[in-house]
Amino acid sequence: MTTVIFVHGTGVRQCEYEKTFKIIENKIHVQRPDIKVIPCLWGDELGTRLNAKGASIPSYDETLALDNVLESEDKEIVLWAHLYREPLYELRLLGLKPREEASSGT
User: Smallest Cα–Cα separation from 14: which of 51, 53, 34, 40?
Assistant: First the structure.
């Protein structure tokens, strides 16, 4: 039997992980019900932490902290505000990558 292990990123915690795991498990089982999907939750214990409520990050309060925005309409407003402020953000980031990494597509 084939087994898929779902490993998450550094900032993921149990609540979000469980939601995502269920989605992934369901999508896999639609195509391949014979595949076993198992979790690998490690973020709560070993993941990154934002100490001092982001005090070391300049303008942290102005970043995309959308988890604190309750209404979906408010999330849209926050997202568009960031886009208006810096519409070329992603292109600027690509320009900061080393030449080899940027050309290899990673």
Answer: 40
pTM beyond 0.85: the answer is no
| Domain residue extents for the chain | 1-48, 59-106
Helical residues (DSSP H) of the chain, grouped into ranges: 14-31, 43-46, 72-85, 89-96, 99-104
- The residue among 40, 44, 37 whose CA lies nearest residue 15 is 44
Query: Exposed, middle or buried, 41 (CB in 10 Å: 0-12/13-18/19+)?
Result: middle
Report pLDDT digits (tens) over 43-84. Answer: 877 877 777 766 666 665 555 555 555 566 676 776 677 677
